[in-house]
From TrEMBL, chain A:
Bound cofactor: record note: Flavinylated by SdhE, about 5% flavinylation occurs in the absence of SdhE.
Compartments, record wording: Membrane
Organism: Kribbella antibiotica
Protein's name in the database: Succinate dehydrogenase flavoprotein subunit
Transmembrane segments: none
Membrane topology, record value: Peripheral membrane protein
E.C. code: 1.3.5.1
Family designation: Belongs to the FAD-dependent oxidoreductase 2 family. FRD/SDH subfamily.
GO cellular component terms, A-Z: plasma membrane
Keywords: Electron transport, FAD, Flavoprotein, Membrane, Oxidoreductase, Transport, Tricarboxylic acid cycle
NCBIfam families: sdhA_forward, sdhA_frdA_Gneg
Lineage: Bacteria, Bacillati, Actinomycetota, Actinomycetes, Propionibacteriales
UniProtKB/TrEMBL annotation, chain B:
Pfam families, alphabetized: Fer2_3, Fer4_10
Organism: Kribbella antibiotica
UniProt family annotation: Belongs to the succinate dehydrogenase/fumarate reductase iron-sulfur protein family.
Enzyme Commission numbers on file: 1.3.5.1
PANTHER family xrefs: SUCCINATE DEHYDROGENASE [UBIQUINONE] IRON-SULFUR SUBUNIT, MITOCHONDRIAL (PTHR11921:SF29), SUCCINATE DEHYDROGENASE IRON-SULFUR PROTEIN (PTHR11921)
Entry's transmembrane regions: none
Name listed for the protein in its UniProt record: Succinate dehydrogenase iron-sulfur subunit
Pathway the protein acts in: Carbohydrate metabolism; tricarboxylic acid cycle
Top-level division of the source organism's lineage: Bacteria
Catalysed conversion reaction: a quinone + succinate = fumarate + a quinol
Nucleus recorded as keyword: no
Residues in 4Fe-4S ferredoxin-type domain copies: 136-158
Length: 584, 234
């Protein structure tokens, strides 16, 4: 076992983690721990762009962007946070350009901008060109550019280090315990500030655009510490995943003029969103697609998907603006987008919920109190700038704005805080977890349980939900948790034991799926990404509030412990905008 | 269909030597090699070890030698590999193997980091963005696509025989900034690449271009850097 001491420890090296690291390491001694290599992070898979009201190609301003974000989030967005994000968006984009990010350019050599779903001029009048982009690989460019800046700034990385526990002393975050993949050795990191930037948990679903590694480790760790998770029922299903695979095809395809069609070749979005049509927010488009399929207007042998049509676009335009996603269609489905329509269906994409934070990136222990020394940014966090449904491009914006803010806040706190003495045997929990798993002799296999979890989540907790389907999911998850107690791994070694780590990751997925479903059961309304067929209207009287889930352990008289999920609620911050019906 | 997959296994905790193991897997023609590896790991042998993340060719984790050629496992479909015959999978060559298909990436990243792969500018920053024409932006577009998967570097015969050579990827990483009109670090970067282990070791075998899963014209980029060195201008 090795011990380390840093002023700031950042967990995760995607966009949010590296953006935080650039701020923090400038100010104080900082370590970045990642279970991958920084450039493998899933920020690199983001495609379409990052919105900011630069007004480079047409009139725009950050207040319109704020309104769109609030309305896109079905009014569950904390409006003070959305204002911060949209106001700072302009500098966030310009900062990236100065770091060297190769944005596409206008004829005058400025950063080019294009249409994106839900982004409008003057509060919904018409679509607006707000997304700053680098072809359809904007996330790749952001990840590379931030990594390049980290090299320039000599940021210290610990690659392939799995953080598995957060250390807390008297309500304050004081360190983390990490497992080194290469050797199986444990490392204790003592720190004044800890920033979680470890991404989402899309792998609870089968059909997902998420990487295999997106198993919600950060949320899972803080959850086990008794810290709350906010708005976990809100999960975004991206309309255009490659049918059957879930591989993401950017909304930029529709931003550049692509059209969704059903089996009658009808442009069906005209019926669902007459003004913005195919560029309606993702939750609405995903539901419309699922509805077309349910009503028998799906395409293909099983009528199981709809088509994304780019055939009316010039091949040269496709090559210049959408090179990667058209290559995905060719590689994985053998479809030629110049001449053929592409089969698409919604794919689990983004967690709106997560570790609750304020606008400085400080993590919250409840509705009001900050946890000293703990920060979160990016998909792992819930500020909440996305509310019930995130607008396209706002995630790349979120990681830059709130990654930066969390990095600054963490370094500022470390400047005056002292190192806390760690508890005796700080590694005990992780030793139990790892060695328990390594030595277990049960008959259950990790992959079988994970497959069953993903199947029930896809069937019961996806675009359409009901009380019945959610109860089914919950009882399935409970059964899977019992099976998980009997799981064993085949690889008993120390070296690169990915078999073991997959088992640990599955533990996080099971916990988070349960929180998602329990939160969704209690929200008896439909809002943004959470659609209940049995309560198909938004209910502002009873549910204009954030869900706060807590893990609580009760001890019976016989000493037996049971884990319960307790739900509480938090008011939504409203400043400029009163809730209104969401039409596009 | 039933496919035979032959994998070069190595785990020094168990055995000092590497050995081939063959697995039988039921796959669909449209499945990826990564799907085959997962099926083996998840259903037959949990000790099989490889890196992977995004599973659609953008993160660069799973470069490996498949049927003797460097490719990404997640971007290679079974039907494109003549699956009637055994499919062979080995770690990429030239970097120390740590376990099964996992190699030590540090020498590779060290080479990348050594070429100053970041924008170098001087003077005050402008208030707004730096202006760059569409033509100037297009000039270095190809090399911005690199995902650092190491398929090119570990397909290079010079790299195999001389571990000190920077390798194609590092030159691609430098090219991306040398030909960026906003950058002012070209002189320093060219000096680094003028090293005896730099661009001049390239023997123009085009293996790197063939290996690149992103379709970057790697050899062309290297030639452009060589030309820039000779004429000292870009």
């Amino acid at each position: 076992m090795q011990r380390h001491q840093y002023d700031v420890v950042i967990v995760g090296a995607g966009g949010a983690g590296m953006r935080a690291a650039l701020e923090s390491s400038k100010r104080t001694r900082t370590a970045v721990l990642t279970k991958l290599y920084p450039t493998r992070s899933h920020t690199g898979a983001a495609q379409g762009g990052m919105c900011a009201a630069l007004a480079n190609v047409e009139e725009d301003n950050w207040e319109w962007h704020t309104f769109d974000t609030v309305k896109g989030g079905d009014f569950l967005v904390d409006q003070d946070a959305a204002e911060v994000m949209c106001r700072e968006a302009v500098d966030a984009v310009l900062d990236l350009e100065k770091m060297g990010l190769p944005f596409n350019r206008t004829a005058e050599g400025k950063i080019d901008q294009r249409f994106f779903g839900g982004h409008t001029r003057n509060h919904g009048e018409a679509v607006v060109r707000r997304s700053c982009f680098a072809a359809d690989r904007t996330g790749h460019m952001i990840l590379q550019t931030l990594y390049q800046q980290c090299i320039k700034q000599n940021v210290e990385f610990f690659n392939e280090f799995y953080v598995l526990d957060l250390l807390m002393v008297g309500g304050r975050a004081t360190g983390v315990v990490a497992y080194e993949l290469a050797t199986g050795e444990l490392h204790i990191f003592s720190a004044k500030s800890i920033v979680f930037a470890s991404g989402g948990f899309g792998k609870v679903f089968r059909t997902t655009s998420n990487a295999h590694t997106l198993t919600g480790d950060g949320m899972g760790i803080t959850w086990r510490k008794g810290l709350p998770l906010e708005d976990m029922e809100f999960f975004q299903f991206h309309p255009t995943g490659l049918a059957g695979l879930g591989v993401l095809l950017s909304e930029a395809a529709r931003g550049e003029g692509g059209i969704l069609r059903n089996s009658d070749n009808e442009r069906f979005m005209e019926r669902y969103a007459p003004t913005v049509k195919d560029l309606a927010p993702r939750d609405m488009v995903a539901r419309a697609m699922a509805n077309e399929v349910r009503e028998g207007r799906g395409c293909g042998p099983d009528k199981a998907y709809v088509m994304l049509d780019l055939t009316h676009l010039e091949p040269a335009h496709i090559d210049a603006k959408l090179p990667d996603i058209t290559e995905f269609a060719r590689t994985y489905l053998g479809v030629e987008p110049y001449t053929e329509q592409i089969p698409v269906f919604p794919t689990a994409h983004y967690a709106m919920g997560g570790i609750p934070t304020n606008i400085k990136g400080e993590a919250l222990a409840n509705n009001d109190d900050v946890i000293p020394g703990l920060y979160a940014a990016g998909e792992v966090a819930c500020v909440s700038v996305h509310g019930a449904n995130r607008l396209g491009t706002n995630s790349l914006l979120d990681i830059n704005v709130f990654g930066r803010r969390a990095g600054i806040a963490a370094a500022d706190y470390a400047a005056t805080a002292v190192f806390e003495e760690l508890p005796a045997e700080p590694e005990a929990f992780v030793v139990d977890l790892i060695e328990g798993m390594r030595n277990a002799e049960g008959t259950e296999r990790v992959a079988a349980i994970r497959t069953d979890l993903q199947a029930t989540m896809d069937i019961n907790a996806q675009v359409y939900r009901t009380e019945g389907s959610l109860k089914q999911a919950l009882s399935d998850i409970e059964g899977l948790k019992r099976r998980f107690a009997q799981v064993s791994v085949q690889d008993k070694g120390k070296r690169f034991n990915t078999d073991l780590l997959e088992a640990v990751e599955l533990g996080f997925l099971l916990d988070l799926a349960e929180v998602l479903v329990v939160s969704a059961l209690a929200r008896k309304e439909s809002r943004g990404g959470h659609f209940r067929e049995d309560y198909d209207k938004r209910d502002d009287v009873n549910f204009m509030r954030h869900t706060m889930a807590y893990r609580e352990i009760s001890v019976a008289e016989d000493g037996k412990e049971t884990v319960n999920i307790r739900l509480d609620y938090k008011p939504v911050v409203q400043t400029r905008y009163k809730p209104m019906e969401r039409k596009y | 269909m039933d496919v035979k997959v032959k994998i070069l296994r190595y785990n020094p905790e168990v055995l000092d030597e590497s050995e081939w193991k063959t697995y039988s897997v039921t796959l669909l023609p449209g499945d990826r090699v990564l799907d085959a590896l997962h099926k083996i790991k998840w259903e037959q042998d949990g000790t099989l070890t490889f890196r992977r993340s995004c599973a659609h060719g953008v993160c660069g984790s799973d470069a490996m030698r498949i049927n003797g050629r460097n490719r990404l496992a997640c971007k290679t479909l079974i039907k494109d590999l003549n699956p009637e015959k055994e499919i062979t999978v080995e770690p990429i060559k030239g970097l120390p193997v740590l376990k099964d298909l996992v190699v030590d990436m540090e020498p590779f990243f060290d080479a990348y980091r050594s070429v100053m792969p970041f924008l170098v500018t001087s003077g005050h920053e402008p208030t707004r963005e730096r202006i760059q024409s569409q033509e100037d932006r297009e000039r270095f577009d190809d090399t911005t696509k690199c995902i650092l998967c190491a398929a090119c570097t570990t397909s290079c015969p010079v790299f195999w025989s001389d571990g000190q050579y920077f390798g194609p990827q590092a030159i691609v990483g430098a090219h991306r900034f040398i030909f960026d009109s906003r950058d002012e670090g070209t002189e320093q970067r060219l000096e680094i690449l003028n090293d005896k282990e730099g661009v001049w070791r390239c023997r123009t075998t085009f293996n790197c271009t063939d290996a690149c899963p992103r379709g970057i014209e790697v050899t062309k980029a290297i030639q452009e850097v060589k030309r820039a060195l000779i004429f000292r201008r870009v």
